[in-house]
Amino acid sequence: MHHKIHTLGELKAAGYKSKSVKQELRDNLIQKLKTGETIFEGIQGYEDSVIPSLQRAILSGHNINFLGLRGQAKTKMARLLVKMLDEYIPVVKGSEINDDPFHPLSRYARTIVQELGDDTPISWLHRDDRYTEKLATPDVNIADLIGDIDPIKAANQKLNYSSEEAIHFGLIPRSNRGIFVINELPDLQPRIQVSLFNILQEGDVQIRGFKLRFPLDVQFVFTANPEDYTSRGAIITPLKDRIQAQIFTHYPETIEIAKQITKQEIKISKEQEKIKVPNLIENLIEQIAFEARESEYVDEKSGVSARLAISAYESVVSAAEMRMLQSHESKAAVRIGDLMAAIPAIVGKIEMVYEGEQEGAEVVAHKLIRLAMKSMATEYFKGIDQLQRKSTAEAKKKYKEIISWFEEGNAVDLLYNNTEAHYKKELQRVQGLKEAVQEAVILSKESELLMMEYLLYVLSEYGLIDWKIIRGSSRFQDYLFSALKGLG
């Protein structure tokens, strides 16, 4: 239709009926629900919580506020709403605020429709151009959002300042018949929130003292961090009252869902695609984020975003790539030691509480990696958690040969940039290590070498051997030897 119709008369003849943006979203959602189409592509883990709430809000024609911590796909969901609009809608050609030819709002469009009638020229607006997003900051003002008198326009066109045509429209009127998103709503000053409340409720706008009845047609979506109510600003009560749907978002509930999100969001170059990332490493990366969300050192009010795992994943892949390039090998796999390369990614993604600040960000990141290694261990090594109990004789027996080897004064140095051959040789020196991981390998289908390396880290977490980081390598040795060396 949009290729053939160029005037209001042609539009009428085609039988076009205009509808509000909320009706449009509703109709298209109903259509998609009937056909069983996937509506929110790429949103994982919200199938039974957030998405049904969002669909009900659309069916009800509600303005929406997503409440949730950082990195919970709030903005992503708002952007996906665009896919639920009609592909094209007709607007009065040249209108700044996407005037509907059947119900023109602006002075400009009303005049044209009055003068030209059925000859009013029409242009077609694609749905991608009907989305506006604004990050709320304390310096956002009424002129940005709603509009202001434009003295230059008034002077050029010899307009009186009280004339409607002297207005320069702000973002919200320009989003008429579209979706308008305000991120971090509590950061808007209360008086600006009051003006939003007027638009939502009364459909009127006051600009510099003269009042415009302006029943804008906008689907509003707000996002906010629930904790921001206390720390920075708040959403004023009357505005909160007018946002009919408050939808709480949340972090992924399982490692599996978290992995799907990371896989979908990581950006990896063509060359890096040949680097193998074992399942164990993927699990450990997600577990680090889970540990961070539980950690006493990390501010839970601030949240730990999914970006932590995404950046960590990209970092460990780059660590393996760097090793491959330096040792002139043609392929590489990520090792446990490569997780240390994720520390810079972790440090930037966690807000510390006071105790965390005292420990230092790198130390906390290190602790989170160690906690993740320990938490995951029980899934790979049966009964390893018994090492913690007093009656560890039985459990220790399994690892006795390994521990004895270290007690004899032997040490293992795993350099992070060791070639594959050297890495293998170093791990195979440890007596009993290979035998100890054989059943774990069968169960997990991971490579034997990776599991051998992992077991060393795990035994150090259970306090059976000592692990130190020494300039680009992990050294494992017996505690006593380590202490004597220190004295010596």
Can you offer a commentary on this structure?
By secondary structure, this protein is of the alpha/beta class. It folds into 3 domains: 211 residues, 3-Layer(aba) Sandwich (Rossmann fold), CATH 3.40.50.300; 128 residues, Magnesium chelatase subunit I, C-Terminal domain (Helicase, Ruva Protein, domain 3); 108 residues, no CATH class. Helix content is 45%, strand content 13%. The chain contains 23 helices and 14 strands. 35% of the residues are buried. The mean pLDDT is 87.
Provide keyphrases for this structure.
single chain; 488 residues; alpha/beta; Rossmann fold; Helicase, Ruva Protein, domain 3; 3 domains; 5-stranded parallel beta sheet; 3-stranded antiparallel beta sheet; 23 helices; 14 strands
List the helices and strands and how they pair.
Blueprint: H1 8-13, H2 21-35, H3 50-59, E1 64-67, H4 74-80, E2 88-92, H5 107-116, E3 122-126, E4 131-135, H6 142-145, E5 147-149, H7 151-156, E6 167-169, H8 171-174, E7 178-183, H9 190-201, E8 204-207, E9 210-213, E10 218-224, H10 228-231, H11 237-242, E11 245-248, H12 255-265, H13 279-294, H14 307-326, H15 343-347, H16 354-359, H17 361-380, H18 393-398, H19 400-407, E12 412-415, H20 420-428, H21 433-444, H22 448-461, E13 466-470, E14 473-477, H23 479-487
Parallel strand pairs: 1-10, 1-11, 4-7, 7-10
Antiparallel strand pairs: 2-3, 5-6, 8-9, 12-14, 13-14
Helix pairs in contact: 12-13, 12-14, 13-14, 13-17, 17-22, 21-22
The N- and C-terminal alpha carbons lie at a distance of 86 Å
What topology, given as strand order, has the largest sheet?
4-7-10-1-11
CATH domain class name of the largest domain: Alpha Beta
What's the Cα radius of gyration? Answer: 30 Å
Q: Roughly what is the average pLDDT, rounded to an integer? A: 87
The CATH homologous superfamily of the largest domain corresponds to P-loop containing nucleotide triphosphate hydrolases
* Strands, total number: 14
Number of helices, counting only DSSP H or I runs of 4 residues or more: 23
CATH architectural grouping of the largest domain: 3-Layer(aba) Sandwich
CATH topology-level name of the largest domain: Rossmann fold
Estimated helix fraction: 40-55%
Runs in which pLDDT lies below 50 for 5 or more consecutive residues are: none
Strand content: 5-15%
Total domains: 3
Quick one: biggest sheet? Answer: 5 strands, parallel
Shape assignment: elongated
Structural class: alpha/beta
